[in-house]
TrEMBL record:
Protein name as it appears in the record: Threonine ammonia-lyase
Enzyme class: lyase
Transmembrane intervals: none
Superkingdom, taxonomy of origin: Bacteria
Length: 412
């Protein structure tokens, strides 16, 4: 894939004045979310970390900003707006369109989770289910746009949307003028394009670092001329974009200093840490900035970093799974496979060792039939709760000292 040329900053389609005008236009109708320092995350990463809590918007995502800025500039004679989205753009556009009395149609893939359909309809939108993929839904939305005379609102590749998203950076710098680095998730590129516009016009140098999931490095490919695959089941579905915008790619090329990629494990860890440390719920995309700090500590050490928690719409069952997996990786939750003799008192004697080591047993799973052991042998898996990895190691050492074969059942 060929790289794209970088245009001069003064030739870019969005300016600081555009973002400032957007902020004046929308500020009375959005939440002025706080920007707070995280002392614990600062100690953990080596940077001075400020978090912008955009997950506290009414629809739990920054997408409201660009959607509202666009709606407020439409021809008043418009018949309505239409978009293709299964995520935060759908809800932000639906909510503000309903509030302004503008009919909204949202085209979603047929496999969109019911909760997202219900939430979008709850904001007054007409939801149309079409196709198995976003691309199919997008194509159908453009067809309906022409058939019904509606106005299409793109989730990221629109100068009005970009200007609206850039208002995040205006507020962050008003609250914390000392920020010298923005670490911003990239999907289609609307948020980082707007924020980089503000950063480029600041009265001091501000580095802008984009973050993408390793499974969807679309903007990284576009900027660097690489051709890594964009596919997979990522926790950060909000930034799982196969093709970035044309406008946003130009702006990222001109204004963004670097793009880093983060693993699924680091995204899971970031979601878990934000809940444990900051007591705030974020989706995978919303945790991407922190995931970058955790993955590249030397890159950000000593810097004053502004991180946008850009969304908090995560399925509760998925969140529970992420938290449990993090507990397992940290050694606080474990499943141990122990070989026993199938005789009275065998499990009791093992349980006595757990008690002596003050380890809580959560579940016990016996396996007598599907095993390669002799008929009088059995395997038992014991799920347990420990204080940390060192505590778990002490338990396993005590079991082995008691004559038992024991091994941890590892996560992938």
């Amino acid at each position: 894939m060929a790289t794209i040329p970088a245009p001069a900053a003064d030739l870019l389609p969005v300016t600081l004045a555009d973002v400032q005008a957007a902020h004046a236009r929308i500020s009375d109708s959005i939440v002025r979310t706080p920007t707070f320092i995280s002392h614990t995350l600062s100690e953990l990463t080596g940077a001075t970390v400020y978090l912008k809590f955009e997950n506290l918007q009414f629809t739990a995502a920054y997408k409201e900003r660009g959607a509202l800025n666009t709606l407020l500039q439409l021809d008043p004679r418009t018949k309505g707006v239409i978009a293709a989205s299964a995520g935060n753009h759908a809800q932000g556009l639906a909510y503000h369109a309903h509030r302004l009395g503008i009919p909204a149609t949202i085209v979603m893939p047929t496999n969109t989770p019911t909760v997202k359909i219900t939430q979008t309809e709850g904001h007054g939108a007409n939801v149309v289910l079409f196709g198995d993929t976003f691309d199919a839904a997008y194509a159908h939305a453009r067809e309906l746009e022409a058939e019904r005379g509606l106005t299409f609102v793109h989730p990221f590749d629109d100068v009005r949307v970009i200007a609206g998203q850039g208002t995040v950076a205006i507020e962050m710098l008003e609250d914390v003028p000392a920020i010298d680095t923005f670490v911003t998730p990239i999907g289609g590129g609307g948020l980082i394009s707007g924020m980089a516009t503000v950063a480029g016009a600041a009265d001091h140098p501000i580095e802008v670092i984009g973050v993408e999931a390793e499974l969807f490095p679309s903007m990284y490919n576009r900027i660097n001329g690489t051709d890594m695959p964009c596919a997979g089941d990522t926790l950060a579905e909000g930034i799982a974009v196969k093709e970035p915008g044309a406008i946003t790619a130009l702006m990222v090329k001109a204004l963004v200093d670097d793009i880093v990629l983060v693993s699924e494990r680091s995204l899971e860890q970031a979601v878990s840490l934000l809940l444990q440390i900051e007591k705030t719920v974020v989706e995978g995309a919303g945790a991407a900035g922190l995931a970058a700090l955790l993955s590249y500590p030397e890159r950000f050490k000593g810097k004053t970093v502004g991180v946008v928690l850009c969304g908090g719409n995560i399925d509760t069952r998925l969140l529970a799974n992420v938290l449990l997996r993090d507990l397992a990786r940290s050694g606080r939750l474990a499943r141990l496979r122990i070989r026993l003799q199938d005789q009275p008192g065998a499990l009791f004697n093992v349980a006595r060792i757990f008690d002596a080591e003050r380890v809580n047993i959560i579940e016990v799973y016996h396996q007598r039939v599907f095993t390669t052991l002799p008929a009088k042998g059995l395997i038992t898996d014991i799920e347990c709760e420990t204080r940390d990895k060192a505590h778990l190691e002490r338990l396993m050492a005590a079991l082995r000292a008691g004559g038992y074969e024991v091994s941890p059942v590892e996560l992938a």
